[in-house]
Amino acid sequence: MPAARNKWFLLLWMLLVLGGCSFVDKSNTIEEISPVVLLYLEEGNDGSIKLSTIIPPLKKEKKSVITTSTDTLIEGRYLRNLKYYRETKGGQIRMIFFSEAMANRGLSSLLDTLVRDPEISSRVFLSVVSGDMIGYLNRQLQGRQEEIDMYLYRMFAHYEKQGQLTTRNLHEYMAKLYSPYADPVLPYYAVANHELRYSGTALFRGDKMVGTIPLSDDVFFQMLRENKGIQKTVPLTEADVVLGSIKTERNIRFTDSFRKVHIDVMLKGRVEEVPAGQKTESPRELQEFERSLERSIQEKLEKIIDRTQALSLDPFGLGMYTVGWKERPFTREQWNQRWPDMDVTIHVSLKLEHTGMLDSHADRR
Amino acid sequence: MASRVGSAGLFSISAPFGFLSLAFWANRMQTLYYLLYLPSMLAEPVTIGLILLAAGCSHLNILMIARCFAWKETPGGYLGIVRTLGTAVSFLFLLAGLFAVLMKGIVLMMGYVDIVHHILFPALHATLFGILLLCACVYLARLGMEKTIRFAIVAFVGTIWVTFLYVPFAFSPAAEYRHLLPLLPEHMPQGIWQAFLTVWAAFSGPEYMLALPKEAVDAKKLKTALIAANAFTAFEYIFFFVICLTFYGSDYLQRQDLPIVDLIRYIQLPFAERLEMILIPAHAISVVYVVAILLLYAAGAIQCAARSRLTAGRAPLGLALLMMLLLTWMAGRWIWPDEWKAKQWITWLSWLDASTYTVLPFGFFLLGWITIRRKWRVRHAGGSK
Predict the structure, then answer these.
(1) How does the record classify its membrane topology (chain A) (predicted)?
(2) pLDDT digit string (tens) for B308-318?
(3) DSSP single-letter state for residue B16
(4) What is the ipTM of this complex?
């Protein structure tokens, strides 16, 4: 009995399951859809959102930038589908660029829409871009680099892996946005001379961009941002020195019932370029050299801290370190009030390695 | 195999259950649904203490359950209840049980269907999927109680591997261990009772074993199995909670609906993305397993309520299935399309689970104890005469 009945049961089951596709009112026939990889959002003249993307992505057809002007993100998708012969889908979005004006206006409502969409991964890269992004994309599509969307995605993925520049995905941004003791940041790119270039870090208060860390200070900003990191090149332009392969370590201590904070930054690495005539023959001279570099790095770090305090931002998440085993001394508001007036002491200790090479180099001169 | 099904009756048991069957059954029953919701409901790091407290209380309950099975003097199963409580009270008891089992089954299944509907197939008709899932449950349940319970091993092995996918999150740079502070409470957090109720409900499940006949379990084995299952459940809850907390931070975690599913979506392997496409269907094995057992319980309740003989074939199961189908259709029509109503039903389920897990083990223990005292007194009085 059961063998025959099982067969019928199985057949019925398969019919129902395989027939599942025909019950649905939404189909994803591959020829009919066009997954979006890159989005650029900028503010229109009348306060609307201008949504641009490259179509078709990942297909060997003539590519172009398509722009729609709308009030909301979802409406933008709808309007885009009204003027394109495929249905655009958000499941493959990898990068979202916001124009500076858009970032100044606030990103919350846009990002909430993205977070709520189960198709969109929380790993989508976010960044702020200044300059004529659409012009840049168009120029690239006209022959220079047709696969510009993939090119940019690989660049972002590489930066994320390397960890020396600011990269942020949707999850990281949102986690910092909701954290009571930290403010979010995004990478800041600029289009200049037909190039899109990493140009520092955009600082946010809540969901609004309020300032940037320029590229010249960005490497020092990174030293303060993470507990441990590595910087392959640290140029100290004032001292005419370039340090390389620097391992950085950050330690944070609060004293005087949270009125003072001590930030110890330990650096270990090599000197890659020194000014001609720099003497490091004796240990004392080497020590002096190290001290002078430490002072110069310390000044840079202090400048960054002053800037963030002036903007009353805590992109380093220092407030997290006030929380102890059994208490949370500050609420979000209290911390936001306390941080700008906090007494910050930065102590830099630099340990140069392979200084023997430096000596022999000096000898030959 | 199939020839032994059917005529032998749904509830006949040939040999006592093994350690693994019992332990995996209890564990899957406990973690099935709450695991997905618990992290965002708790959110604050101090609630790790609540999980430990609930695990401790659950341990006491388990000792009581095991004790009930160890007493030789008390009759077990349905007949035991009828003898102690009388026919009328047992009938009410049956009806209440039937209601509880059906409600639990429906909420568990529709909750899972809703997840699939929301994340995997937004265009698929949710009720239809629920009915398909129910077909799978009946396919398992028609094999009878014994085989269904032994399916625990498949259900456990088929879903436990998912846990390993989360281990890398503990070491990822996105994990901020400072989110785990403060561990000790400064003051009584708001809604602590609600949170404890949910955690307590999350440990419920072993009380369903009380309905098993005594010859189906070896009391000693049951005790160790349940203790192991309870400890593993507590470990699972704490592990997933810590992973979610370090990844999201408590403020962001509160805003997540299904943090565990969202976490898996964060994994981006070079050859595969959207791993939730594999994970969520794998979870169906556990859902089918637990709902199949609940279906059998409902069938049992119907059979007893109808006062027919215990080997009455599979008609009660058919009736239970009909009831479930009707309820699935009703839930899909009126409850689940409205998110607030669905959330309300999930809250009611946790109240139901919390109350059954509080009342049943203690009630059975008390009844058993009274019976023994009475017997002892009678014997003692007889002896003195």
Answers:
(1) Lipid-anchor
(2) 555 557 788 88
(3) P
(4) 0.85
